[in-house]
Target: Methyltransferase family protein
Amino acid sequence: MKTIPVAALIEEATKDIPGWSPQDQLLSLFTLAFSSAGLGGDILELGSWCGRSAVALGLAAKLSDKGKLHCVDLFPEKNDWYQNEDGTYSLVVSIDNRRIGAYGDQTVWAEPYLRDIAPLYERFSGTLQAFNVAMAENELTDFVTPYRADLEKFITIAPKGLELRLAFIDGDHSYSAVSKDIEIVEQFLLPGGWICFDDAFSSYEGVNQAIVESIIDSGRYSNCQQITRKFFVAQRR
Ligand SMILES: C[S@@+](CC[C@H](N)C(=O)[O-])C[C@H]1O[C@@H](n2cnc3c(N)ncnc32)[C@H](O)[C@@H]1O
Model:
């Protein structure tokens, strides 16, 4: 059988998509989402930005031909960003007359903002457009649905009877937000399903604390494992 290896496929598909997920993490995400297809259920990503990790997860849905990928993000536009007094950047988006902030506790330094974030608004009208282009170019639109929302809103508009075989948490990195996200996601996670985290046990104290309390010490998860430098997974009992 001569097919393109998935690792090469993901690398090619994501090479021009701005974002922060390295290739080893993308392949790990794909592998879990692909190999858990037998559980049934869908895949959820919280924090999609321009679609880099969503491509890996979307490919898993497509190649396994099982389930859909739901991508939840505030999808900020250029004017949603503002500069703080110390020169760093934060954002606030307005969704259904609700103002939702991000990067408030852990603001974005001017240098990475100007290097990684500002230029993408010259290429695209916003992150949702960048996301949609990435899905279309990789023929994933039939398998992936973006929601401009936080999780609280998503669960009010999610497909009825939603069940998840994998959830990837990469949204607001504060302790309170990650704890709340885990609580919400858990209601939909199938026994044997995976919950995965970016930026775990690297440089975000809030993410670490939430994982220790709500996952590792909860008794509700097995196979708690750091897979790559900043990618952590656990399996619902
Ligand atoms: C680190 S980026 C995600 C990167 C992406 N997974 C990748 O591979 O490139 C974090 C994302 O979380 C989103 N975000 C932050 N707070 C959020 C919230 N409360 N609800 C939904 N999305 C949020 C931001 O808009 C941003 O796109």
